[in-house]
Specification:
alpha+beta; four-stranded mixed β-sheet; globular; single chain
Length: 78
Amino acid sequence: MSANLDTDADEVLDVRRIDGQPFDPIMTALGELPEGETLLLVNSFEPEPLYDVLTERGFQYESEQRGPAQWHVRIEHA
């Protein structure tokens, strides 16, 4: 795991303040992510259910807990 996943992200999506489930905004951001670019997802919990979806759709990811209620997931559109 990288010590600082957000240093080279092309886009950042912080879903901690989204009212309701963040799945749809995440899928929208991923759908707009150009091939070869990365999205840094900032969440208040580890989004474990998202990992299977990312894998199924051909994305690569790394995750890192940055605080008690802060997770960074670097997602690459390979």
